[in-house]
Amino acid sequence: EVQLVESGGGLVQPGRSMKLSCAASGFTFSDYYMAWVRQAPKKGLEWVASISYEGSSTYYGDSVKGRFTISRDNAKSTLYLQMNSLRSEDTATYYCARPNWEPPYFDYWGQGVMVTVSS
Amino acid sequence: DIRMTQSPASLSASLGETVNIECLASEDIYSDLAWYQQKPGKSPQLLIYNANSLQNGVPSRFSGSGSGTQYSLKINSLQSEDVATYFCQQYNNYPPTFGAGTKLELK
Predict the structure, then answer these.
(1) pLDDT in tens, A22-38
(2) Chain A partners of B96 at a C-beta cutoff of 8 Å?
């Protein structure tokens, strides 16, 4: 059974940093691109970033480019999202998602982790 | 970026009724269209991909259709467990973009 379990969220002040993790199991992690998708409270879904199989290629949405970094550790089957210079508009539930196809749709999603950016 | 416009934003339907949700893309997306169901407090679940292919394990009362810029999700014989918000998403071009969602409630 495919499982994606996010961790690392919480309350952070504007301008500070936070790192999210996603532990994957139930599939061969290195065989898949991986992605982060976020959802602001009571809002729609926004693709944040994607990473290729070995991490050599990364893709970012315009709203996070230059501030967020997606990475992965295939030995640990873990995906990461380093978020710097956080803004109030980054407040959202962040989902780890497994893409199918490129550009992706997403066939498995984690339960999500809440990030609140507030002073 | 490709803009995805969903309609209606919300709808109310009775048990056993047939429901249709529409999604309009700002340009041709060549059937690179997925539909997701999100129940309250849960993560999205994939229902349909390639505009009309049913994801494994999804009940057959769900179906998708469309081409070009116009797509639709149909739910036959509405069940209580179908109460959710539904999102469309295009994956023809980066960035992948989502519709704003359609909230489905029981009448």
Answers:
(1) 999 999 999 999 999 99
(2) 47, 103-105
